[in-house]
């Protein structure tokens, strides 16, 4: 757990999710699904519940190669970063990252703190050697954030996302943990 001051002076706690965060995490996902078209799910599209969030948190906390890290401001979830490592022996060393910050907190430095926390967590595992992610090629904010920390564009998935009949390509990006 780490407490730091944001660019605007407010205090933020960065820590792993616990089962008690399930209800707030469910709410957080409902909010972010309505606030950005850069996520793989749209508004009211996620049929998750506090119970399913509790199961997700529990299984991440039991796995050596998965994690959910929260950014908390004023006791509210302002952002999270997730990493799901592979299940089989041949895929355990790699996994997929996801990140989102509530719109009202964009541009305050939370994305930076979450990416730093994930890289630090990954370096401290004995297992994780590669972080993968997908991001729409027009998500310039996210791409700048990833490139700032050394993520590399590895390829393009064409027609990866379709929103209201419009297709969007995604970059596959990656980061080595060595
Ligand atoms: C992408 C996202 C997580 C960034 O979080 P954030 O808290 O706003 O980011 P930060 O304020 O920490 O900024 C981190 C970096 O992102 C980039 N960035 C932030 N705002 C930007 C903007 N308006 N334009 C261009 N780059 C920007 C910069 O590189 C910045 O680094 P700096 O602090 O050195 O300038 C957030 O915008 C978000 O949740 N977006 C919607 C969901 C999403 O796109 N998720 C990623 C899916 S792949």
UniProtKB/TrEMBL annotation:
Q: Which terms in the Gene Ontology molecular function aspect does this entry carry? A: acyltransferase activity, transferring groups other than amino-acyl groups
Domain of life, source organism: Bacteria
Q: Which CDD domains match?
A: NAT_SF
What's the short name of a Pfam family annotated to this entry? Acetyltransf_1
List keywords of the entry alphabetically: Transferase
Which InterPro entries does the entry mention?
A: Acyl_CoA_acyltransferase, GNAT_dom
- N-acetyltransferase domain: from which residue to which, for each copy? 12-178
PANTHER family associated with the record: GNAT-FAMILY ACETYLTRANSFERASE, SPERMIDINE N(1)-ACETYLTRANSFERASE
Its name, as the record gives it, is: Acetyltransferase, ribosomal protein N-acetylase
Which species is this UniProt entry from?
Answer: Desulfosporosinus youngiae DSM 17734
